Amino acid sequence: MIQDIDLSNLPKHVAVIMDGNGRWAKKQGALRIFGHHHGIKAVRETVEACVELGIGYLTLYTFSTENWNRPKAEVDGIMSLLVKTIGEEIPDLHKNNVKLKCIGDLSQLPAKAKKEMEDGVEKTKNNTGMVLNLALSYSGKWDILQAVKKIAAQYKTEEINLDDINEKLFDSHLATSPDPDVDLLIRTGGDHRISNYLLWQSAYAELLFMDDIFWPEFRKNHLFDAIKTYQQRERRFGKTGEQVKDKK
Ligand code: IPE
Ligand code: IPE
Ligand code: MG
Q1: Measured from the CA of 24, which atom of ligand 1 is nearest?
Q2: pLDDT band at 31 (very low <50, low <70, confident <90, very high)
Q3: pLDDT digits (tens, 9 = 90+) for 141-159
Q4: CB distance 196 to ligand 2 below 6 Å
Q5: Residue 152: partners with Cβ closer than 8 Å, 6 or more residues away
Q6: What's the domain count of the chain?
Q7: Does the pLDDT value for residue 229 go beyond 80?
Q8: What is the dihedral of CA 137, 111, 45, 52, to 10 degrees?
Q9: Which bound ligand lies closest to the C-alpha atom of 82?
Q10: Can you tell me which residues bind Mg(2+) (predicted)?
Q11: Which residues face 187 on adjacent strands?
Q12: I want to staple 216 with a disulfide (CB 3.0 to 4.6 A). Which of 38, 73, 123, 135 is the partner?
């Protein structure tokens, strides 16, 4: 229930690995793409729940670099679904003051999907509410490498010197910049891995594996439950439990 949530202790940045669409579909004797279709309602509920709570940043793992290696029919199906869904969802996102961003190697996307994304980003760019990052053709290693390349180029032109390279500068070149690091990382579907997601940004994230839920089943109350679990965690950032408690 939303009422049990302490609004003064919300994660600033929630990231989700939306996993289990294919297995959910298979369980009903349907094709994997049926699961992806049903995942859209779960996305809508998650966005709405985060907006209701006042979460600042939500980053959804929509399609990974590695997902390009799936059978062509599934990749094509996901890409057409993306085009259709983004177009349909933008008015509601806009109404909710959500600012849509897209992180990942967008040059890999089919032209239509890229165009829909860019239009959505443009339409919502002045919104001041929650930032919704769709990680598309994204991987954590890709993100780190593209940041390294930008920093190397700045070093080469002597815009920066070696001592300027620190965490803050590195952060500023990541695809998620200027968003804060991830506080809570949720994965549905039963697997306990990061799958090349926000590797740098999740350095101190609380990890929550919601094993009993396939992504198409995810609803607002699951998100509220996840926040409640997060609020029971003690985040120590390397300090002792006593130090953290004394500060409270
Ligand atoms: C997540 O569900 C969606 C994408 C990766 C695009 P999966 O498609 O990975 O579903 P499972 O994990 O095979 O059940
Ligand atoms: C991670 O799920 C990517 C997305 C949810 C978009 P996968 O299903 O691709 O991850 P692995 O292959 O099981 O690690
Ligand atoms: Mg999966």
Answers
A1: 14
A2: very high
A3: 999 999 999 999 999 999 9
A4: no
A5: none
A6: 1
A7: yes
A8: 90
A9: 1
A10: 19, 206
A11: 17, 209
A12: 38
Instruction: Note the pTM of the prediction, 2 decimals.
Output: 0.98
How many angstroms is it from 18 CA to the middle of ligand 3? Answer: 8
Residue 170 lies in a domain: yes
76, part of any domain: yes
Q: Is there a domain that residue 123 lies in?
A: yes
**Tell me, what CATH number does 57's domain have?**
3.40.1180.10
Residues involved in catalysis: 19, 67
Question: CA distances (Å), 46 to each of 42, 50, 58, 153, 178, in order?
Answer: 6, 6, 9, 38, 22
Residues near 121 by Cβ (< 8 Å), separated by ≥ 6? 100, 101, 102
Residue 245 inside a domain? The answer is no
d(C-alpha 222, C-alpha 118), whole Å: 30
> Does the Cβ of 18 fall within 6 Å of ligand 2?
yes
For residue 68, say whether it is annotated as part of any ligand binding site. Answer: yes
Cβ of 139 below 6 Å from ligand 2: no
pLDDT for 53-80, tens place per residue? 999 999 999 999 999 999 999 999 999 9
Would the pLDDT of 248 be above 80? no
200 in a known ligand binding site: no
Q: What is the mean pLDDT of residues 126-140?
A: 98
| Ligand with minimal distance to 214 CA | 1
Distance of CA 19 from the midpoint of ligand 2 (Å)? 6
Closest CA to 62 of 111, 135, 13: 135
CB-based burial label for 70 (10 Å; 0-12, 13-18, 19+): middle
